[in-house]
Design a protein that fits this description.
By secondary structure, this protein is of the alpha/beta class. It has a domain of 229 residues: Bacterial extracellular solute-binding protein, family 7 (D-Maltodextrin-Binding Protein, domain 2). Helices cover 48% and strands 12% of the residues. It contains 13 helices and eleven strands. The strands form two sheets. Strands 7-6-8-5-9-11 form a six-stranded mixed β-sheet, covered by helices on one side. Strands 2-1-3-10-4 form a five-stranded mixed β-sheet, sandwiched between helices. The longest helix has 35 residues. The N terminus is likely disordered.
């Protein structure tokens, strides 16, 4: 406890001492431990920041014992953190308009496309910008998880196998998918998944394969059905405190956003590709069965996802805008390829080069 308080005190003192005319060592809060992809992206961001600014800006990463996710809003507003990993869906009351993009999670088939669609959505959505300003931060882009699948203790080889199955749901879109096919969605914290599966309270989860390692589901799961369900992409990776952003010159902001843009793609590369590959290696060393669903299963799931997105787009203009951006970035990723550096260049050209950094976020 004393160590935590000491670290927090030092962080607060450093934040209060920061001014635009001094060497800018920013306090970075991923709100996650070193094994988490959010911490990884902050390590990369710190490197990119020094590169893009020629060392004029640097970063010190704070551990979750200093700033945890529930503290992010207060941390950014009080100066305990200058830059933070804020999740709009976690602060749903603060981001009702930004959060509509999460209701189209079932569209997610490519992590890069989803992260970039969310980035462009956040940058160009006026009401979303207002929400971030009220939150005390500037939005500088998003990233995405890999595509979710079914991780279960019972085999799911066909649509019939979903009948009556109890599945953990991470959000409304996944609950709608489960109910449509006769399963029962169960809302519980992701950290409770292992215990719930081991006790038989639930039969499985709609989740990232990375949960095999993050929550040790590799020790309890028996099957993985590779039906693409969607992504988690409503992130704000480098939410920058309003006063810190206001203290930067236009040139500094441009350099800073170049670092953030590269960090966004590094995050998706880690969460959407590197970690799933590591998780699959772990799964292959067990007796967990990987199930490839039939064409009828896949077609029905994709059809529901499309219908669900269309229904949401029809009732909400912002949802329609986000759906169009997903289609746009699916096409761009197909053209450019799944290369994070090449996609960072394209993201700059398509999104950030069109931003007026003298007024953005102000």
């Amino acid at each position: 406890m004393n160590k935590t308080l000491k670290i927090a005190g030092l962080a607060l003192a450093a934040a209060m001492a920061w001014t635009p005319v001094q060497a800018q060592n920013l306090l970075l809060a991923p709100a996650a431990p070193p094994v988490h992809p959010a911490y990884y992206m902050y390590e990369r961001f710190s490197e990119y920041l020094a590169e893009e600014t020629g060392g004029a800006m640097t970063g010190t990463i704070l551990g979750p014992e200093v700033v945890a996710l529930p503290q992010m809003k207060d941390a950014l507003q009080t100066g305990l953190a200058n830059v933070g990993n804020a999740l709009p869906l976690y602060f749903a009351a603060d981001f009702p308009q930004t959060g509509v993009a999460g209701d189209l999670a079932l569209l997610g088939r490519n992590p890069y496309a989803m992260g970039l669609a969310m980035t462009e959505f956040g940058v160009t959505c006026g009401v979303c910008q207002d929400e971030f300003k009220a939150f005390g931060a500037v939005f500088l882009g998003s990233g995405s998880s890999n595509v979710y699948a079914l991780i279960t203790t019972k085999p799911v080889r066909s649509l019939d196998d979903l009948q009556g199955l109890r599945l953990r749901s991470g959000g409304a879109p996944y609950s709608r998918w489960a109910e449509n096919f006769g399963a029962t969605p169960v809302n519980l914290p992701v950290g409770d998944t292992f215990e719930a599966m081991s006790q038989g309270t639930i039969d499985g989860t709609m989740a990232s394969i990375v949960d095999m390692l993050s929550y040790r589901l590799v020790d309890i799961a028996k099957y993985v059905t590779e039906v693409p369900l969607g992504t988690y992409h409503v992130t704000s990776n480098f939410s920058t405190a309003n006063d810190i952003w206001a203290g930067m010159s236009v040139e500094q902001r441009t350099q800073y956003v170049r670092a953030a843009n590269r960090g966004n793609l590094a995050f998706t590369d880690r969460w959407g590709y590197q970690l799933p590959a590591e998780a699959m290696t772990a799964v292959e060393a067990t007796e967990i069965e990987m199930i490839a669903p039939g064409d009828d299963f896949l077609a029905a799931s994709d059809a529901f996802a499309a219908e669900d997105a269309a229904a949401k787009a029809a009732e909400n203009e912002l949802s329609a805008q986000f759906a169009a951006l997903v289609e746009k970035w699916d096409g761009i990723v197909a053209e450019v390829g799944e290369d994070p550096e090449a996609l960072a260049v394209r993201a700059w050209d398509e999104i950030w080069s069109k931003v007026d950094f003298s007024t953005y976020g102000m």
